[in-house]
Amino acid sequence: MADARAWLLWALTMLLSASFSRNPLYSFLLLLVTVWVYNTCVTAEEHRSPLTPLRFALFTIPLAALFNALSTHFGRTQLFRLPDWIPLFGGAVTLEALVFGAINGLNLTVIFSSFTTFNRALAVRDLIALTPRAFHESGVVLSIALTFVPQTVRSLQRIREAQAVRGHRLRGLRDWAPVFTPLLVSALERALMLAEAMVARGYASVAAAVHTRTRALLALGLVMLLAGWLGALFVPAARAIAIASLGMGVVALVGVVWSMGRTVRHTVYRPRRWRARDTWIVAGCAPTLILLLVERGAFYYSPYPDLAWPAFDPLVGLGLLGLLAPALFAAPPPRERHDDPLRTP
Questions:
Q1: Which of 5, 28, 133, 322 could pair with 264 in a Cys bridge, judged by C-beta atoms 3.0 to 4.6 Å apart?
Q2: Which pLDDT tens digit goes with each residue over 209-243?
Q3: Could you state, in order of their start, the residue ranges of all structural domains in the chain?
Q4: 88 in the Ramachandran plot: left (φ > 0), alpha (ψ -120 to 50) or beta?
Q5: Is the pTM higher than 0.85?
């Protein structure tokens, strides 16, 4: 499996690409990339999840298109018209608004698919390793929260299969009681076992001391960050000073995190090494990041006021294909993945 830092860069690149892209052709290409990477790098067990990227797309894209078409009354190609007395939805329903909503739903699907792939392709211990040492306790709590949903989904599947073997069928709300009750009991039992394991292993038994100098630097960094942000928004004449204040605040906060991390004892049972495949994943993200900086206008598209076919640059599309690097160079997924953040690999 690839390094967690390479996976994080890939997920952030997908997030930026989907956020800046308004062109549906590029967004659809990004969706195909995420689906390919998902099918290649995620275990077969995760493929049986009820909320896959394609299922999310089939739900989100039509819903976003319908909502935008009913709530946004712009465009020249009128499909039909609702009575004006209907709040929010009253007015003309246009084809341009329908297409714009579908584009928003497509971008949301790309973001969901990329972070779903990132979450399911990585083991929880690798996600914890990305957390700065100063926030190691928060990282463990966050990792437990991230694994709660997939664990619950797998428990639900097992309970439904067991009830189906016994002849139970889901026909109405009352039929969910034999499924919901064991699911709730198993979730509580799993939480108690995890809490006992954390206490037995001495989790957070020793609190790290925070010096007064570190607290003062943290407060100063936050004040400078807030002052710079407010200055950049409301005082255009002092924009240079505001940007300098923002930069100094960020530097101060980074220094606080680094200083607090030095006081935390950190051991790794089986460290992961940076390999050639990780370099290829980073190199695959580089063309997309360069395009977002240099050719941002190529990603722009608007169906208003008249609907037109979006432009497609083959070179831009070829640059986006570099995001396929995890599927091409990452190792195949293991057959079984443990989601216990306290489990030793």
A1: 133
A2: 667 888 888 899 899 999 988 888 888 888 889 88
A3: 4-136+274-329, 212-262
A4: left
A5: no
